[in-house]
Amino acid sequence: MGYNRATSLLPKLICTLLLFLLLIGFMLPMDQAAANASAFRLVVQATASSAYRTEVVFTDKKLGKVLKEGQSRSDLSYEEALLPDTTLFFEDNGRTYSFGVTTDGEVVELVSKSILTLPHNVQTSLSAQVQAVRAKHYGEMLPWEEASLVLPKYSKFTIVDVQSGLSFEGQRRAGSSHADVQPLTKEDSATLKAIYGGAWSWDRRAVLVKLNGRTLAGSMHGMPHGGDGIPGNDFNGHFCIHFLGSVTHGSRSVDPAHQVMVHRAAGLLIPYISKLSPWALIDVWISAANQGDLQLLQATTGTEQAVHVRSMRRLSKFPEQDVSQLLQLETAVSVTATPEGASAVVNRRVLFRLERASLDTRWYIRSAVMQ
Fold it and tell me: What is the value of pTM for the model shown?
C-alpha cells in the first residue's frame, strides 16, 4: 500500500521538477540581460552647488555600449556659457563616469566640452529621460495674471528654495502686482531666515511654489516690510514673490533680478539670457555682482569669474540706441555700490564692453571696469 502511494506521487514530483527547470530557463536569460544593461543615474540641479536636486535611475544597454566605446566627435563642441544642468553618471569596472546631458539628449564631456556621437534612437531615448526628470525638478512658468488665479488671496502653499532645498509654508495675504506673502508659523519664518544665512535680505532667490498638485516657478526676496501679519509667526510684515511679468508696487515696472530668478526656477536660464539685449544683459550682470552669483556672472560673460559688490544698483537710464547691426558695444552705466572694505554706499560708473560673434548670435559682456 505504501509502495502504491509512492508510485502515485512520482508523476507529480516529476512535473514539479520540470516546471521548476522551465522557470529557471526563462529567468536566466532575463537576469543575463539585466546584467548586461548598464545602470545610469541622471541628476538635475539649477546650479552646480545646489543642494536641491532631482534624480532618476534607469538602464540602457545601447547607451552603455556607446559610452564605453567613447566615440567622441571632434568637429562638434558644446558652445553654451554654462554646462548642462543635468549630469549623467554610470560605473564601469569600478570607475564612475560623468557627462553633461542637454535636453536634446546630447552627451557632453565635461572637461573638453566635446559632444559624443550617439545613434539617433539612443539620443532620442536619452532626451526623453532628461526632459522627464527636469519636468519633475523645475516649476511651471506662468504669467502673473494666471499665477494670481492659481494662488488666490489667503491660499496656503509650500515654498522651496531652489538653491538650498529648504522649504517652508506661506500664505498669500495681499498683492495685486505680485504676491505679498507671510510665513505661516515662527518655524517657517526661521527657515526663511536660514535660507538667507541667518539675516533678512533683499536678495532675489529662485523658488518653487507648490499648491494643489502644481509647481510654479517664482522669485522671492527675504526682507520683512510693509504691513499685514500673522500673529505669532515672528515676521513683522510680508515678503514678495514675483512670477513671469509681475511688477513692483512702487515703480510699476518689471524687476530684472526677479525675472532672471523666475527663469532659473523654470530651468530656462540660458535660453532667457541668450535672447537679452545688451542693456538687459547689463542689468543681469549688476544683479549677479550685487549678490555674488557666480553662475549668473558666467552666464553673462561666458567665463568663470568672481565679482561681489554689495548695494550695486543701476542709476542711469539706458540710452536709446539701435544695436541691431553692431557686433561690439561700449557703454558707461552709473551705479550705486559699496566697495570692498567700505561701509558707505557711493556712486560709481562702470564701463561695459560687449560683443557677439555674428548678428544672429547672443551678446556677452567681455569686460566691466568700475571707475
Answer: 0.87
The strand order across the sheet containing 346-355 reads: 310-314, 328-338, 346-355, 364-370
CA distances, 177 to each of 26, 152, 159, 169, 251 (Å): 63, 13, 19, 21, 11
Under DSSP, is residue 225 helix (H, G, I), strand (E, B) or coil?
strand
Host H or E run for residue 42: strand 39-44
Q: How many CB atoms lie within 10 A of CB 22?
A: 10
The domain that holds 45 is classified in CATH as 3.30.1490
In whole angstroms, give the CA distance from residue 181 to residue 229: 9
Cross-strand bridge partners of residue 169: 158
- Report if residue 310 sits inside a domain: yes
One domain, residues 147 and 229: yes
Is there a single domain that holds both residue 198 and residue 246?
Answer: yes
Mean pLDDT by 10 residues, the chain (371 residues): 47 48 41 55 96 95 81 74 95 88 94 90 95 98 97 97 98 94 97 97 97 97 89 94 91 90 97 96 96 96 91 87 95 90 88 97 95 85
